[in-house]
Each structure stands twice: as C-alpha cells, then as structure tokens.
C-alpha cells in the first residue's frame, strides 16, 4: 500500500516528514518518526477504551455517545461551580471551547502547568525565532533544564544540533552545545559544556554567566555547584557565537522560584543581545499542544491558566489553579479533557476529584478516566482527529489524521461544541 504523509503528535515538535502505511484501520508501518511517535500511532489507538460508560450505584454501565453527552450535560447543569481542566493535548479549537464552557457555567478553567506559561511574558524580541531559523543559523545551542534525548527525541537531529544550515555549514561541527541540568543526562553526551547545577540555583548560574560574558570576575571557585573553569569556558564560547538559541525545559518548574529563574535567563539573553548577538528563547513544550493552550488562553483571557469565571468578566488568578480549587473544595464537579495520569495534581486534589461528579474525555484508560463518573473515550489527536495545534516555537500546524475513530469514540471538538450548545 502507498504511504501517506502525516503530522506526528508524539511531542510538540510536530514533525511533518513522517509517513505511514494504514490498512483496515491499523497502522502497519511508520517512517521517520521517533519511538514516541510510533507508540502514539500504533499502541495508544489500540489501548484506548472503545465505549462510553457511567458509574452508577457502584456499577459501570455502558452508554451510547449521545447518552454520554446527555449525562455530561446534566452533571454540569446541576453544578454551581465546575472545574474545566485540560488543553495541552487538545486542538486549539478545543481549548477555545473549554474556556467557553467554563465561562458559560461560571466555573474555573485550568490546564497542567507548563514551562510555556513562564515564557509568555518575556520581551517579544526573545520569542520571535522559529525552529527552521535555528536550524539555519544558530551556532550555540543551550539546553537549559531540558533533556530532549528523553522528551523530544528528534529535536537535536532535526533542528538544533546536527543539521547543516546556512550559517552552520558543517552542522554539528559548526555548533557549540551546552546542557544545564541537576544531573547527568542523555543530551550531555553531545555537549561541549555540561553544567550540573545544584537544584533550585538556576538564577545564580544565569547571573554568573551574565557577569562573565560582560567581562567581569566572580571571586568564587564554584557557583551553583559548577566550577569557575566550566562557567568561564561556557561564557567564552557564548561570547564568540553569533546566534545563541536557549531551549528551556520543564526542569525550571521544579525550582522554588521558577519565575525568578526564568527572569535571570532572560536578563542573560538581553545582555547577549546588547553585545550584538542574536538570541532566542523557546520553551520545550511538554505536550503536543502545551504552547497552543498557553497562547490561546492568554490571548482570550489575559493569562495562560487559572481563570476563575465566578465573576462575569473572568479573573486570572495564580491562586485558582485546579489544585487549589479541588483542595479547598471550591468546585463541585469537573470535566477533565485528556488529563491522562493527572501528574500535575496533588494527591489531595485527586482524592477530592474522585469524590465529586466528574466527566473524563480521554485517549487512554488513564487515572483521569477511572476517577470519572462519566467516562468518554476520545479520538487520538492527530491520528484519528484533526484540527490545528501549535508547535513549541509558536507555529500553528494543521493536523493530518490517518484514520477515522470508531463511531463510539468522541472527537473532542465535536463533543465539546455540542456540550456548549446544550448548556
């Protein structure tokens, strides 16, 4: 059979050079994708539940898709303040519908925390670069608290390190790579500079590099656990580079003060700009549409997450996260959209979620699915359903699904759109 082109949704790189062979609703062959993409196209579809169900009186009863929609509608209508949670694994249109639902119901909209949320308030001059431009011109690649060898498997080979480009004709040999993390990582194997930093001391490291690139001295043998020799060598190579691309990862969120760390990295970048360098900062968006979720919510409501619609205008508040709302029993129902293992929720929040009526729209038989009263299997984004999502660098990409979902499985845009109309 002929191969067909698709967009891989295995991560937020959204690789567009992938081809697949499909026969009788099964993916037989995947070309060019990494193991994350192959798993998504071959295994996730097979493992996903096939029929909606409701937990009623301790027993589980199967429903039709229309019945599941009606039960979801009844549950949300009877709620005084529901939580709508998700978006990072959904299409851009689905994110808009989630916000519209929360607004219509006077509830709370939130999404899993993301490094994308940290970068949105940076100076726009640092956020304009695209991956294709970095491929062509960046000669210093800095992976900051990110390990693409584990999370974005083709990042280095397709865009940032190995490809030959306009200003980097020898590819890997024309670039310098630095990796900063709290432990040895797989990506450090391709780096000239390996900076293993003490947890939570990113800001100190960025400030030290800032001083060094400006020609200053530190007066210490080590900063944040990194030797002066390594810091000086890294700063020297940054000063020699013409284009520095900084990829910040989720590791920043594990620090006590992630905003302070991000601001320090941004100050370093601005200093480099002042020295005549081109500099870009791109978040290593954790999920297929973490960047789209952040951009759309900020555009519509002024903040990337934690929007409280208990007042008509909708108020962004760092306090009103899903964790806070559940832990303080401020919501009495929930709609979880592709929440998966609920990794971002605390154990207390998950416990409360299991006590209130909840609807889960899920691609897999996940913790979110089993915590719900109404369980709705969802089409796998990019494999069975289309729409637009946003790549980690802010480029909107139209998906190319390769098969249709079973009739008993919901396409999230359609399901959410009908829910909005029914409420």
CATH-derived topology of the largest domain: Rossmann fold
Biggest sheet architecture: 9 strands, mixed
CATH class category label of the largest domain: Alpha Beta
Distance between the termini: 45 Å
Number of DSSP strands?
21
Shape, please? globular
- DSSP summary: helix tally: 15
What oligomeric state do these chains adopt? single chain
Radius of gyration: 23 Å
Quote the beta fraction. 15-25%
Please, could you describe this protein's structure?
The protein has 423 residues and is of the alpha/beta class. The chain has two domains: 49-113 and 289-422, Rossmann fold (3-Layer(aba) Sandwich); 116-283, Dimethylsulfoxide Reductase, domain 2, CATH 3.40.228.10. The chain has 15 helices and 21 strands. The chain has a nine-stranded mixed β-sheet. Helix 2 (65-77) packs across helix 15, helix 3 (92-105) packs across helix 11 (290-301) and helix 8 (202-213) packs across helix 9 (228-240). The longest helix is centred in the middle third of the chain and has 17 residues, at 258-274. The two termini are 45 Å apart.
